[in-house]
Amino acid sequence: FVISQIRSDAGMLTLPVLVNRQTPFVQTDPQRHVRRAQERVLSDVPYCFAGPDYDADLTPDDRPDAIHLGKAGMTKAAELWAN
């Protein structure tokens, strides 16, 4: 719904959307639903494309408080987006 509304508001029904794959850092079953929803958007919503996969490309060291990205994590995330 959100993607459709943004596209409608912008008057660009094929506006590309990049979807970052990331689940809450501590993996529990309810949080895995977040990842499944991100993957479903990529497979079911036209003109949506995969952005970085933080789950695969970032490490615990990138999150010094186990939640937020630290300086090294932000740098790594920026490089993922740039690539």
Describe this structure as you would to a colleague.
There is one protein chain. With 83 residues, the chain is of the alpha+beta class. 49% of the residues lie in helices and 13% in strands. It has helices at residues 2-10, 29-44, 54-57, 71-82, and strands spanning 17-21, 48-53. It has a two-stranded parallel sheet with strand order 1-2. Strand 1, helix 2 (29-44) and strand 2 (48-53) form a beta-alpha-beta unit. The radius of gyration is 15 Å and the shape is globular. The two termini are 28 Å apart. 1% of the residues are buried. The mean pLDDT is 90.
Number of strands: 2
Q: Strand pairing plus helix content: what structural class?
A: alpha+beta
Averaged pLDDT, please?
Answer: 90
Strand order of the largest sheet: 1-2
**Residue share in helix:** 40-55%
Largest sheet: 2 strands, parallel
Using the alpha-carbon principal axes, give the shape: globular
Percent strand: 5-15%
Rg to the nearest angstrom?
A: 15 Å
Tally of individual helices: 4
Task: Describe the secondary structure blueprint for this structure.
Elements: H1 2-10, E1 17-21, H2 29-44, E2 48-53, H3 54-57, H4 71-82
Parallel strand pairs: 1-2
Characteristic key phrases:
globular; alpha+beta; 83 residues; two-stranded parallel ribbon
Outline of the structure:
By secondary structure, the chain is an alpha+beta fold.
